[in-house]
Amino acid sequence: MSLLRWIDDSQALPSATLALGPGTEAPGLVAAGGSVTPARLEEAYRGGIFPWYSSGQPVLWWSPDPRMVLPVAEFRLTHSLKKTIRRFLRSPGCELRFDHDLRRVIGECAKTPREGQDGTWIVPAMLEAYCDWHRQGRVHSVETWVGDRLVGGLYLVQIGRMAFGESMFSHATDASKIALAALVAACRRHGITWIDCQQNTRHLASLGAREVPRDAFLAHVARASGAPGPAAWTYDEADWALLFDTSAAAPAPPKAG
């Protein structure tokens, strides 16, 4: 019988391989307790674990099996999305920004429930912790602006050559898809081959994301997070060539499983 492991801030997180398994009430749950700090987040993400909990709950640490990832070479750039991006880039006042207003991006994501769920999982303590971690260079935003309006975006964690997608929002048609496409293009420039998507959703699957076994995910994170990453996250319009020209895409990693 699997038992939930409780931890405090003085204890290390258990291995992701010790997460509760199928048939339990919370498959993928690694541990509960402690607090969310940049140091704890660094430990968690390097171990393939992330926090996900609601107001009134203890901090819950997860590592689902299988894991949803988006191989950047397999991103589905449909003809209609490509036209939308080109139109956006040509339109006066429309622009992509990286790390311009991360706090606001997270705040907007907090208002947007995950697919199939009610309410938010981005509680105030989470917002503050990720903003603190951003100041250490680990958390980034990709933002879609129309004039002075933030109409869509996403935020992510980046360690070495591993990107962990956290959440996205949209207040205009395809605004979050444009931001994701910009992230994919930037990842191709920086040699980042997988974006962690955490859990399976129809929306992510429609964009090319797929499930991989947790063991394969953990092995990839160990390799990628230890590799030299970009010195800085900046928007470069030249990156779009890496998305629009399929011959410039990075090769897909071998399929796991």
Give a short synopsis of this structure.
Helices cover 31% and strands 21% of the residues.
Proportion in β-strands: 15-25%
Low-confidence segments, ≥5 residues, pLDDT <50? 247-257
- Figure out the total of helices: 8
Distance from first to last alpha carbon: 27 Å
Reported for the largest beta sheet, the result is: 7 strands, mixed
**What's the alpha carbon Rg, rounded to whole Å?**
18 Å
Q: State the order of secondary-structure elements, H for helix, E for strand.
A: EHEEEHEHHEEEHEHEHH
Total strands? 10
SS-based structural class? alpha+beta
Helical proportion? 25-40%
Strand order of the largest sheet: 5-6-7-8-9-4-10
Which word captures the global form?
A: globular
- Calculate the mean pLDDT score and round it: 92
Question: Your description of this structure?
Answer:
With about 260 residues, the protein is an alpha+beta fold. Helix content is about 30%, strand content about 20%. It contains eight helices and ten strands. The strands form two sheets. A seven-stranded mixed sheet has the order 5-6-7-8-9-4-10, with helices on both faces. Strands 1-3-2 form a three-stranded antiparallel sheet, with helices on one face. A hairpin with an 8-residue loop joins β2 and β3. The longest helix has 16 residues. The two termini are about 25 Å apart. About 40% of the residues are buried.
